[in-house]
Specification:
Layout (H helix, E strand, L loop, with lengths): L2 H38 L4 H37 L1
Length: 82
Amino acid sequence: MDLSLAFAYLAAGLGAAGATIGGGYGIGKLASAAMESVARQPESAGDIRGMMILTAAMIEGIALFAVVVCVLLIFMSKTVGA
């Protein structure tokens, strides 16, 4: 195995791990803040829930995009190194 291919695998693995951990942490903080807001003002639960779902989808989209970039790094390193 070529050393540059090994580094590409390492970078893709670390990048995918960082993206998923970061996305999970962000959604967890978002849910925590939303639940605290609903506890303070129960009458605005519908608005808070809607904004929480929209923001969670955006965070998840960014994390998914980062994982796709990491997978592309693996496939492109195979074709460039050949």
